[in-house]
From TrEMBL:
Xref: PANTHER family: MONOOXYGENASE, MONOOXYGENASE, PUTATIVE (AFU_ORTHOLOGUE AFUA_6G12060)-RELATED
Name used for this protein in its record: Podospora anserina S mat+ genomic DNA chromosome 5, supercontig 4
Domain FAD-dependent oxidoreductase 2 FAD-binding: start-end pairs: 11-43
GO terms for MF: monooxygenase activity
SUPFAM superfamilies: FAD-linked reductases, C-terminal domain, FAD/NAD(P)-binding domain
Family of this protein: Belongs to the paxM FAD-dependent monooxygenase family.
Coiled coil feature spans: none
Keyword Oxidoreductase set for record: yes
Pfam families on file: FAD_binding_2
UniProt keyword terms in alphabetical order: Flavoprotein, Monooxygenase, Oxidoreductase
Leader sequence residues: none
Length: 425
């Protein structure tokens, strides 16, 4: 029962990435509308390149008005991927048709374009999003949590949701100390650009773009290269994951070097080299992958500040689940807060149960990032030529055919009772 005189549960969200926006939209969908979102960027420019949402998160978009219709024209349409060795010899095709029929569509597209549609949807609901506000400090007491912004303003609420991505400042409050990223030993060259006209006629590249969208993978020793054409071949995106131990700072916007990429791919398929050569210099980025050990908890000592998305659990791109798990966090959180609707004194219960529902799943999914990379980078080609399916992406039902909202509704009470028995509630 909600105490009759209590004000509605108040929430501050930091970060307007997919984690923060999903938490805001899903809370709003459950009637929790006393919230505000702070984002440090003064404007949301369409940054990034290809991003993937598995069926476990594409189903979330279907609850958000006409978003699926708006996404349809901008997403990648191929439902198969062709694998090659590094010299370009065809190895195998993996079809996604059956899983699309069984589990629904995946969504692959430009991060900036998809993000801007989600952002507009949040605005259309009336969610207050304050751009250009950087949070510099987190604090909490038993009765509330708060943040201080770079202009010195302090804001408090029943709950603070830190969705600030991999460089999260709230991790210090949660852990009681600063944690430092470790080099993963890998980096990714990434690019997205309008398909050059010459690609449509060149015998090297026309198969990539002339008959609609395509998806191709080239697998070498400790390097893999993925290329996808989008919007009926009009745009093209490629990513190349490779060994790199030089630098551990992490940013989506490090400029990449074409000569460095070409020298890495010297003896590779001419198709791959053509993709790199055609890349406009200013559209090539070099994303250094860092690694963070799993956190012992996502919840602050007083249970009033939590980490969601990459702030809690950064993913390797080879898991293809970073954005999906960030969205699941928001969906499950909204279910948990709905159970204590209006009662700010029960926030600790809601967030502890939320963590109980999320912790094991996100860390199990996180591990698939390493297994997929190793499956490709350390491939035994004697085995592969006999059994090419070894290269296929593992598409697992427990990850993809998963309804995070239903699961949370079904398990909330059991997890809560377990926490009570353990004396954690
Ligand atoms: C610019 C950018 C480009 C990206 N491009 C790709 C891509 O091409 N492909 C891909 O797979 N993934 C990409 N990602 C990462 C991907 O979006 C995330 O891994 C995933 O969606 C999880 O999202 P998140 O909301 O947890 O984190 P993020 O997407 O990192 O969002 C965090 C948000 O918090 C804001 N923020 C951070 N610190 C503060 C602060 N102190 N105060 C206020 N706001 C703060 C950031 O500006 C950002 O908007 C990109 C992320 C960013 C930020």
């Amino acid at each position: 029962m909600t105490p009759p005189s209590s004000p509605p549960l108040s929430i501050i969200i930091i970060g307007a990435g997919f984690a923060g926006l999903t938490a805001a939209i899903e809370c709003h969908r459950k009637g929790l509308t006393n919230l505000v979102l702070f984002e440090k960027s003064p404007s949301l420019s369409p940054l990034g390149d290809i991003i993937s949402f598995g069926q476990n998160s594409s189903r979330i978009f279907t609850n958000w008005g006409n978003l699926p219709d708006l996404l349809s024209p901008i997403i990648h349409k191929a439902d198969q991927v062709h694998f090659h060795d590094s010299s370009g010899r065809f190895v195998t095709t993996q079809s996604f048709k059956e899983e699309h029929l069984a589990w629904g569509e995946r969504i692959n597209g430009h991060r900036g374009e998809i993000h801007s549609l989600v952002y507009s949807h949040a605005l259309s609901l009336g969610i207050p999003i304050r751009l250009g506000v950087t949070v510099t400090k987190y604090f909490e007491t038993p009765s509330h949590a708060g943040v201080v912004t770079s202009s010195g303003e302090a804001h408090t609420a029943d709950l603070v949701i830190a969705a600030e991505g991999v460089r999260s400042k709230a991790r210090t409050l949660i852990l009681g100390e600063e944690d430092h990223p470790l080099p993963s030993g890998y980096a990714v060259f990434r690019s997205w650009f309008p398909t050059p006209l010459s690609f449509f006629s060149s015998p090297l590249t026309s198969h990539l773009v002339s008959r609609g969208d395509t998806h191709n993978a080239w697998i070498g020793t400790d390097v893999h290269f993925l290329a996808a054409s989008i919007k009926n071949g009009k745009e093209i995106s490629w990513v190349c994951t490779h060994v790199d131990t030089s630098d551990i700072s992490e940013s989506w916007q490090f400029p990449g070097s074409k000569p460095a990429a070409l020298s890495l791919l010297q003896n590779w398929d001419p198709v791959v080299k053509e993709l790199v050569k055609a890349t406009p210099e200013e559209r090539l980025f070099d994303y250094k992958l860092v690694f963070r050990d799993p956190l012992p908890t996502f919840v602050s000592p007083e249970g009033r500040t939590i980490l969601v998305g990459d702030a809690a659990h950064p993913f390797l791109p080879t898991s293809i689940q970073g954005a999906s798990q960030a969205m699941e966090d928001g969906v499950v959180l909204a279910v948990c807060l709905d159970r204590i609707k209006g009662d700010g004194t029960k926030v600790k219960e809601a967030v502890r149960v939320w963590e109980g529902l999320r912790y094991e799943r996100v860390h199990r999914v996180q591990k698939t990032g390493v297994t997929t990379r190793e499956q490709w980078h350390k491939a035994d080609w004697d085995v592969i030529w006999k059994e090419p399916e070894v290269l296929h992406l593992k598409r697992e039902g427990w990850i993809l055919d998963f309804d995070s909202e239903r699961d949370a509704e079904e398990r909330y009470e059991r997890v809560r009772e377990g926490l009570v028995k353990e004396g954690r509630l």
